[in-house]
Amino acid sequence: MKKRSIIELIMSLILLVGAYIVSQKGALTVESLNVSTDQKLVIIDAGHGGRDPGKVGVNGEIEKDINLKIAQYLKELLEEQDIQVVMIRDSDTGLYDEDSKNKKVQDMQRRVDMIAQVSPDIVVSIHQNSYEDSSVCGPQVFYYPKSTEGKLLAEGIQERMNTLLEIARPRVIKSNDSYYILKKTVSPTVIIECGFLSNAGEANLLNTESYQKKVAKSVLGGILNYFNGK
User: Fold this and answer.
1) Does residue 3 have a pLDDT over 60?
2) How far is CA 154 from CA 11, 78, 172, 173, in A?
3) Which of 3.40.50.1370, 3.40.47.10, 3.40.630.40, 3.30.470.20 is the CATH number of 37-229?
4) CB of 76 within 8 A of CB of 200?
5) pLDDT classification of 1: cutoffs 50, 70, 90
6) Residue 63: which H helix or E strand, with range?
7) Are 219 and 192 contacting, i.e. CB atoms less than 8 angstroms apart?
């Protein structure tokens, strides 16, 4: 083979290898934007935000702030388990336009739209409860009555919260067909009322970093039990 032919062959091989490497890098970039087929995807919805504070506790605790902190701790725990997480909000903002005539309705519609676009394995919506009787306390998980998977998820989370948080009078899961995010979401969805801000003792706990992390850990346990069961 002539020297020129050899050089041309070597150059062709170099170009082919270069093209292959570039194509592989491109593939990895595209793949990184998508969820792996064997990787679970969880949407965490930190309730309220922005102009909507949610419940205000007996000692001035603000629900939207507690919701976000627990949601962020839960996100960290899930990612440690190689579970992909999408946050509905990761700051003190609402999903509405400032000039909207009904910010609450627009906010809820956009949360549901976001969930539909992502199509997660499950959705957990973090909230805090309140009641006129200040003695009422304890976490409670809600699910949509027509969702079998939602009920299973709710049962797993409720059990872990009752156990890990050492609830003296454990509550049970409850179905609800009026909560917008439950009835408008196809993916298995639960609303987690982590405790009662109307109860002084529980409100104090929910406002501490240690208890917020404990709540997040208990929710993680319920989610893992649900996924392992499947």
Assistant:
1) no
2) 61, 17, 9, 6
3) 3.40.630.40
4) no
5) low
6) helix 63-80
7) yes
